[in-house]
Design the sequence.
């Protein structure tokens, strides 16, 4: 068990932080209470202030260890912040994304009469996310969770004259309220079972009579927040919103579900059923969304379905207990997706989202088999060197197998064009370098988050081994499917499947009809 689970973080009293906190609030208020472009510039300066504070706090955590900053208390209701490696990592990442998004929004909405309103809601949304990641108790966490959703709704309905934007925002609003209901119910159950909402007290004794119900509700809330199947269609439909909102939502806010699982992992791991459900539904969402993503010809639609798939894979990682790996995934995906959305005006990578790669024949079966063989040798060889075996950690072994399939795809994409010696060596070098980098980064994140994220490697039942085997086969099936797309695309049955897949198998349409009836 780690430091946070065994001991309360060092407590810093309110007088030490009230003055600088009030100063920060005053500066941010003055920055955003302007008009037009000045308000947008003020929002950008507020984001810079957030980032500076995040860096200072991260440095303090690195030097002094985890700390709890209590600003005020009214009986069991405490306004307190938790600064530990996990919250510091998220704080730096979110505030850095905030700088990029707010700066981009300055020119993006220049001249729009509603720019000041947009900038204020953007700062409020960013502030809510930052409070969420720094909350030291479940009550403040839930309040920030709800505030993030409500403020995001104001951004999603910025273009109220666009029917598609309003419909998508309504759909998101309904799903978010379901997630909020789960969190409020958890608040009641946790208070009834533990008599406290403070994380360090809950984590020190996570077992309770209703622990399974709490874990299940937390998993449902996370799945709803992170656009998991079957509640996923709202995310691809929100592209009518301004691009800075898409970037912030796909790179930052969508990660709230994953952060919930990681932060409250001591409570969720009390229920093997909740963990297995999380892994299975996450894997299905990842594969389902990946197939649909390959049918999209609109680059922003493709990016949106990519986000659904990535969140599904992150949930799979959490369900298997690879919490540090999930955090590495969150950071990498957030940085990539923010850049992708803010540069989505470029069509250079449009062909990558096509169902049939232009000018590329189907991979030869020998190339596929050879690519898999090389990737398996490199991936499991490095895992063996690091002491990861199927018997000791089957969950991590499954994730290594999925990574191996990704490396196999990289290889056959390269080798299908030519089998010259230069390309063969280049492919081998890329696989070795990528595998080494992935293992090194994973080890780095595990070391960084050792004081915040508990280790989870329970004994697996035969049913769990069977579930993991099925998940591996599903990923392998999608891999083979992708390699043979060009040769299958001309078949009539496949063309019909393409049409259905490009429309998301109509689940979004059905949800839209329900939304319109529900709101009307």
Sequence:
């Amino acid at each position: 068990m780690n430091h946070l689970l065994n001991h309360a973080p060092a407590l810093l009293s309110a007088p030490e932080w009230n003055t600088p906190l009030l100063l920060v609030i005053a500066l941010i208020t003055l920055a955003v209470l302007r008009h037009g472009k000045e308000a947008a510039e003020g929002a950008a300066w507020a984001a810079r202030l957030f980032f500076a504070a995040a860096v200072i706090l991260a440095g303090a955590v690195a030097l002094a260890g985890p700390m709890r900053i209590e600003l005020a208390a009214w009986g069991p209701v405490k306004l307190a912040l938790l600064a530990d490696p996990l919250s510091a990592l998220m704080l730096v990442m979110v505030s850095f994304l905030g700088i990029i998004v707010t700066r981009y929004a300055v020119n993006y909405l220049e001249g729009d009469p509603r720019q000041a309103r947009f900038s204020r809601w953007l700062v409020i949304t960013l502030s809510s996310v930052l409070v969420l990641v720094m909350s030291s108790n479940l009550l403040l966490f839930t309040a920030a969770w709800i505030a993030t959703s409500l403020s995001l709704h104001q951004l999603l309905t910025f273009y109220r004259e666009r029917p598609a934007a309003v419909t998508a925002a309504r759909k998101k609003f309904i799903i978010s309220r379901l997630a909020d209901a789960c969190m409020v119910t958890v608040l009641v159950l946790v208070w009834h079972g533990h008599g406290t909402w403070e994380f360090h007290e809950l984590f020190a004794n996570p077992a309770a009579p209703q622990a399974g119900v709490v874990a299940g509700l937390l998993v449902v809330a996370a799945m709803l927040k992170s656009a998991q199947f079957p509640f996923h269609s709202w995310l691809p439909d929100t592209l009518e919103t301004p691009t800075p909102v898409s970037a912030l939502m796909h790179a930052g806010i969508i990660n709230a579900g994953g952060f919930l699982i990681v932060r409250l992992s001591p409570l969720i791991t009390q229920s093997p059923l909740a963990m297995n459900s999380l892994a299975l539904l996450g894997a299905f969402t990842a594969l389902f969304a990946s197939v649909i993503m390959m049918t999209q010809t609109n680059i922003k639609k493709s990016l949106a379905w990519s986000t659904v798939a990535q969140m599904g894979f992150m949930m799979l990682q959490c369900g298997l207990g690879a919490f540090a790996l999930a955090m590495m995934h969150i950071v990498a995906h957030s940085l990539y997706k923010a850049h992708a959305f803010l540069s989505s005006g470029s069509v250079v990578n449009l062909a990558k989202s096509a169902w049939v790669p232009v000018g590329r024949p189907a991979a030869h079966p020998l190339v596929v088999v050879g690519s898999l063989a090389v990737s398996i040798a490199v991936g499991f060889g490095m895992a063996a060197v690091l002491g990861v075996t199927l018997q000791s950690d089957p969950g991590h072994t499954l994730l290594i197998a999925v990574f191996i399939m990704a490396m196999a795809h990289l290889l056959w994409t390269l080798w299908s064009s030519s089998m010259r010696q230069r390309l063969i060596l280049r492919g081998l070098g890329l696989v070795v370098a990528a595998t080494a980098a992935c293992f090194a980064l994973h080890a780095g994140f595990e070391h960084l988050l050792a004081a915040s994220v508990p280790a989870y490697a329970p004994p697996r039942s035969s049913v769990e081994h069977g579930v993991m085997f099925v998940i591996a086969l599903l990923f392998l099936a999608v891999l083979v499917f992708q390699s043979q797309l060009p040769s299958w695309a001309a078949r009539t049955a496949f063309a019909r499947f393409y049409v259905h897949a490009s429309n998301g198998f109509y689940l979004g349409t059905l949800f839209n009809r329900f939304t319109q009836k529900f709101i009307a």
